[in-house]
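Chapter summary example.
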Amino acid sequence: MKKNMGNTDRVLRTIIALIAGLLYFSGTVTGTIGIIMLVFAGIFLLTSLVSFCPLYAPFGINTCKTNPES
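The structure predicted for these 70 residues follows.
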């Protein structure tokens, strides 16, 4: 897998995932919406850790900084 996520994208996804987890585990968001948010939070954390978003690939999106030498 080639990385397609930059640092800003990774940090934002991690923050969103943490907020979603906090809202779920504090009981602010419950039920089906809470579970959906928790699943998305897990996906956001996983993609942030591996620096690859599978949805970016088909659309050719790449938020990594490009190296002008290569």
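To summarize the output: The CA atoms of residues 22 and 32 lie 16 Å apart.
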